Amino acid sequence: MKNIRLLIIASIGNNLRLKTVGIVFIIVTLVIAALLVILFCILLIEPAVSTASPDRADLELYLGLIMYSTCFLTLGVNLNSYGFQSMTREKTRGNIESLLATPIKIKDIWIAKGLAIFIPGLVIGEIFTLITLIAVNYIYFIPGTGFIINPWIVVNSFIAAPLVYLCLGLLVYLIGLTGKPATGNIIAQIFLPVMINIVIQLILHTNILTSTSWSFATANIGLALVIIIITFFLQPRLTKEKIVLSC
After folding, report:
1. Pick from 28, 35, 149, 180: CA 20 to 30 A from residue 110's CA?
2. Which residue would you say has higher pLDDT here, 139 or 210?
């Protein structure tokens, strides 16, 4: 555990030195997240609160969708921004090969590097999501219906969404570590828009899942488990030979 902790700290420091990537990540995330929130507020929340008697359940549903999408989007952009750049940079400079020559286990290197990409995105994602919660409430809800929050909104936005991206990040880094970083990056790039679109369609147009229920949390946990199972079956690829040949 000590080796993993120290390697995570060192890797986060190295990733933060990618200043151009960091600036692009912050700007892109802010712009996309702001546009997404504004769009949802105009299309969903404004019509709902303008009625004579706003339905609190609908308001909770829309708020949950906005918060979940904000966190999921931030984590997705973070993985797309740092995952490929970090893996490519470390392989090109021989950092991975140097670590393989130390007593640190290959599994520890993989986990530490994956977490080093995930943790900064988690912090920023949680902050953005919290700001969204407060802003939407103060702009739309407090004047009429009061502060709106639901325990399952909190679970789905602050726990379930990050859990999915924690598992996906480990899978993407494993693939990039034992093969080409671009291959892992393709998975991350495809996953983000496809998942956001599926979630929005399911929540708005069906009664299967709602962003304010335990079923949505269960679905996210199930998705995380599927990703973990895939990662488990790919773990035998995690050998020195595979990693060195891929560098």
Report:
1. 28
2. 139
